[in-house]
Specification:
6 helices; mainly alpha
C-alpha cells in the first residue's frame, strides 16, 4: 500500500513537471494540485487520529487503534510533503492542521459519543485516499487543467 502511494506521487510529479507549457501556468497548476491534496490528506490525518482516540475510549482493541495511528502517520507525511510542494511553510501547514482539528472536534461537540458525525463524512473518503490515491490525484490534475488553461 505504501509503495502504491509513493509510486502514484512519483508519477504525478513526473506528469506535472514534464510538460512544455509556460512555467507560470504549470506552477499554478502544481500549487493548486498540491495545496488541495495537502488539505485532504490533513483532513484524513485528523479523522484517523480522532478515530484512534475514540477507539481508546470505547473499544480498546490495540490492533485496530494501531491501524488508525499508522495510517494517520502515513497520510500526515504525505500531507506535509504536498504542502511543501505547494510552497507552504511549516508554520502555515501547522496552522491549517490546527484549524482542521478544531473544526472536527467542534462538529463532535467534543464528545466521542458523536463520532458518527465525522465517520459519515470521512470514513469512505479517507479509505479511498489511502487505497487508491491515483484517483484523487487525477481528480485534482483534471481540476487544475480546467482552471489554468
Amino acid at each position: 500500500m505504501i509503495k502504491k502511494l509513493f509510486y502514484t506521487i512519483l508519477v504525478s510529479c513526473l506528469f506535472l513537471g514534464g510538460n512544455g507549457y509556460a512555467v507560470s501556468t504549470e506552477e499554478k497548476r502544481s500549487n493548486y494540485i498540491y495545496n488541495n491534496l495537502s488539505f485532504e490528506y490533513l483532513e484524513c490525518q485528523h479523522y484517523l487520529m480522532i478515530m484512534s482516540e475514540a477507539l481508546r475510549t470505547n473499544n480498546p482493541d490495540p490492533k485496530l487503534i494501531k491501524n488508525y495511528v499508522d495510517n494517520a502517520k502515513l497520510v500526515s507525511e504525505i500531507a506535509f510533503m504536498y504542502g511543501d510542494d505547494a510552497g507552504m511553510s511549516l508554520e502555515g501547514m501547522m496552522a491549517r492542521s490546527k484549524q482542521i482539528s478544531n473544526k472536527m472536534l467542534k462538529s463532535l461537540d467534543n464528545n466521542f459519543a458523536n463520532i458518527a458525525v465525522i465517520q459519515v463524512k470521512y470514513a469512505d473518503f479517507c479509505r479511498s485516499l489511502i487505497e487508491t490515491p491515483e484517483i484523487r490525484n487525477q481528480f485534482w490534475i483534471n481540476k487544475a487543467n480546467e482552471k489554468y488553461k
